UniProtKB/TrEMBL annotation:
Residues 9-315 form the FAD/NAD(P)-binding domain. PANTHER family: APOPTOSIS-INDUCING FACTOR 1, RIESKE DOMAIN-CONTAINING PROTEIN-RELATED. It comes from Streptomyces inhibens. GO terms for molecular function: oxidoreductase activity, acting on NAD(P)H. Keywords: FAD, Flavoprotein, Oxidoreductase. It comes from the Bacteria. Its cofactor is FAD. This is FAD-dependent oxidoreductase. One of its GO terms (cellular component) is cytoplasm. Residues 338-408 form the Reductase C-terminal domain.
Length: 457
């Protein structure tokens, strides 16, 4: 049986970070069969974090963000062609050019795309951008380099905040509009979002919270000129960046019978996809941003992550399990980790901050803008976020992994101090925000197409 698993045909749908790392790992694990990687963009896999940082600052061109290969995966690359369907009975992946790719096992790593502005006519105005792909980053960087009078950013999540930071570093006037009470509140909760709001304003950002953009305006010739807000005000701007979060690329799986929905494709801890009845498949695997998977440290709730490290770790687990029999398969149990650089601050996160009911500042202070905040849920540590204190993160990672009691004892790496009194974590309902969290507990999402199957006889 192990010999059979190391041969045959494997198709990876998604020429992404997860797709590339899975292809490399398959070869490292001894897979000798045919390997095909399908990608809807015409480029080999590239790195996304630099797009909202170095590329927007003009420090590196968008076309130099290609990911280095650890080894040549000896794959047949089908780039610039979209997957349009998956036939689980015929074991074929259908492509937009009419071709069908037969497979013995398939890995879905189609990731996410930027959520577009909901009005297509307004979204098509010259000067309105989203930021997810290499082409989008290149186009936006070019427009910022031209020196617009003002940039409007819709959404105060991590991407929106990094864009605003890049604009200010370039010396550009920028307005951020966020429906929620503060930037980053959906990802980090109320306490740290207060620091985020202060940093925006201290760096000259025109921050508007608790309001929404109701319409984007043009000059009659198709050029963006500004936006109307729900409080009756108007923002005049030359460039608009829509940073409303991500959409999982699952539409192509609508008729596949897999448990695929707006929050991703459900899979088990071994990255094996569930079908719509909750039965695990043996030949369909999922990795990266498009996955929803259970984690024992967070109540076995289904997690959706948009994190670089998760895409790598999950791809390696999926690839291992694709070519190893059941007893040798391993679970994907690594903790979510995330980092962001904005307004001169380095923000790092481990665990799931939204899986919390209380927080405590264990080190540093909001006033010093250097701190470690620890999150707890029902009396145990579930996450930690550091601001310019990254070396403490490993200590808190250990607390999360060992389900240590909350609030945590003193004893972090650089100094041992008694923690402050815990306060509510104040994580809002994402429905009231412009931005969503980059790590989310997706909870229960029933599929209304299900029919009850009655036993016969």
């Amino acid at each position: 049986m192990p010999g059979d698993l190391r041969d045959g045909r494997i198709v990876i749908v998604g020429a992404s970070l997860a797709g590339l790392r899975a292809a490399e790992t398959l070869r490292e694990e001894g897979f000798t069969g045919s390997l095909t990687v399908v990608g809807d963009e015409p480029y080999p896999p590239y790195d996304r974090p630099p797009l909202s940082k170095q590329v927007l600052l003009g420090k590196v061109p968008a076309d130099t963000t290609g990911l280095p290969m650890r080894r040549d995966p000896d794959a047949d690359w089908r780039l610039g062609v979209r997957a349009t369907g998956l036939d689980l009975f015929g074991k074929q992946a259908m492509l937009a050019d009419g071709e069908s790719l037969p497979f013995d096992r398939v890995l879905i790593a189609t990731g996410t795309r930027a959520r577009p502005w909901p009005n297509p006519e307004e979204a098509s105005l010259d000067g309105v951008f989203t930021l997810r792909t290499r082409d989008e980053a290149g186009g936006l960087a070019e427009r910022l380099a031209a020196g617009p009078g003002r940039v409007l950013v819709i959404g105060g999540g991590f991407t929106g905040s990094e864009i605003a930071s890049a604009c200010r570093e370039r010396g550009l006037e920028v307005t951020v509009v966020e429906r929620g009470p503060a930037p980053l509140v959906g990802a980090l909760g109320g306490t740290l979002s207060k620091l985020a709001a202060v940093m925006h304003r201290n760096h000259g950002v025109d921050l508007r919270c608790g309001v929404m953009v109701t319409a984007l305006r043009g000059d009659g010739n198709g050029r963006f000129t500004g936006a109307d807000l729900s409080d009756g005000s108007r923002v005049d701007a030359d460039v608009c960046v829509v940073a409303l979060g991500a959409v999982r690329n699952v539409e192509w799986l609508a008729e596949s019978g897999l448990a695929a929905g707006p929050r991703g494709i459900a899979c088990d801890a071994g990255c094996r996809a569930f079908n719509m009845y909750g039965i695990v498949t043996d030949d369909v695997f999922v990795a990266g941003d498009v996955s929803r998977f259970p984690h024992p440290l967070f109540g076995y709730q289904m997690l959706s992550l948009e994190h670089w490290g998760n895409a790598v770790a999950q791809a390696e687990v999926a690839a291992h399990n694709m070519v190893n029999p059941g007893p040798l398969q391993r679970p994907h149990l690594s903790l979510p980790t995330f980092w962001s650089s904005q307004f001169g601050l380095n923000i790092k996160s481990v665990g799931v901050p939204t899986f919390s009911d209380q927080v405590v500042i264990a080190q540093g202070s909001l006033e010093a803008r250097r701190l470690a905040m620890v999150y707890g849920y029902q009396g145990r540590v579930t996450a930690a976020v550091t601001v310019d204190m990254a070396k403490s993160l490993d200590y808190y990672k250990h607390l999360i992994e060992t389900a240590a009691p909350f609030p945590p004892p003193p004893g972090a790496a650089d100094r041992a101090i008694a923690a402050d009194i815990p306060v509510p974590s104040d994580v809002p309902d994402p429905a009231g925000l412009s931005h969503g969290p980059t790590v989310a507990l997706t909870g229960h999402l029933p599929d209304r197409r299900l029919t009850v199957v009655q036993p016969t006889g």
